């Protein structure tokens, strides 16, 4: 076997190896791309926070709250509470409280649709307090944005 034969043989081996390697590169790149997309989707899902929900179990209505400070930034763990009076002569009473998540959001579900007096939601964060009056007979599904500011 001469030098030219060896060079030709080596080129043919390298070419066949290149063809085989090319067959595995494409699925490997595809798998890496899919893995990257899945991991980026997981990080996006981790950024969204679950909204805290309190279920009163008294009716079909709900109220969503977004609590912000004076510069429109969400307030974490702002407390929202309400006392619901219902039943004959309003003898029954339910006290509910929920804290907001990092996006300043909270939700009350299954509130009664008929009440004698409007529901008074008290929103507080530190020394700041605000009261929101809500009548479920007027709007069963309501949403409020509350700005807590010093006056």
Write up what this structure looks like.
The mean pLDDT is 83. This protein has one helix and eight strands. The termini are far apart. It folds into two domains: 1-48; 53-147, Immunoglobulin-like, CATH 2.60.40.1120. 30% of the residues lie in helices and 36% in strands. By secondary structure, it is α/β, with parallel strands linked by helices. It has one helix spanning 3-47, and strands at 53-55, 61-68, 79-86, 92-99, 105-111, 119-125, 128-134, 141-147. It is elongated and about 105 Å long.
SSE layout and pairing:
Elements (H helix, E strand, L loop, with lengths): L2 H45 L5 E3 L5 E8 L10 E8 L5 E8 L5 E7 L7 E7 L2 E7 L6 E7 L4
Parallel strand pairs: 1-5, 2-8
Antiparallel strand pairs: 2-5, 3-4, 3-6, 6-7
User: How does the helix and strand content classify structurally?
Assistant: alpha/beta
**Helix content estimate:** 25-40%
Number of domain units = 2
State the separation between the terminal residues, measured CA to CA: 97 Å
Percentage of residues in strands? 35-45%
CATH class of the largest domain: Mainly Beta
Order of helices and strands: HEEEEEEEE
CATH architecture term of the largest domain: Sandwich
Q: What overall geometry do the principal axes of the alpha carbons give?
A: elongated
Q: Using DSSP, what is the number of strands?
A: 8
């Amino acid at each position: 076997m001469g030098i030219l034969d060896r060079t030709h043989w080596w080129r043919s081996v390298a070419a066949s190896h290149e063809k085989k390697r090319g067959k595995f590169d494409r699925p490997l790149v595809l798998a890496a791309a899919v893995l990257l997309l899945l991991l980026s989707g997981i990080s996006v899902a981790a950024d969204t926070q679950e909204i805290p929900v309190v279920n009163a179990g008294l009716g079909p209505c709900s109220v969503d709250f977004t609590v912000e400070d004076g510069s429109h930034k969400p307030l974490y763990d702002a407390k929202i509470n309400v006392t619901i009076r219902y039943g004959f002569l309003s003898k029954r009473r339910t006290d509910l409280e929920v804290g907001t998540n990092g996006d300043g959001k909270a939700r009350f579900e299954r509130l009664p649709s008929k009440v004698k007096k409007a529901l008074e939601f008290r929103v507080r964060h530190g020394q700041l307090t605000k009261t929101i009056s809500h009548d479920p007979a007027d709007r069963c599904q309501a949403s409020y944005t509350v700005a807590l500011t010093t006056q």
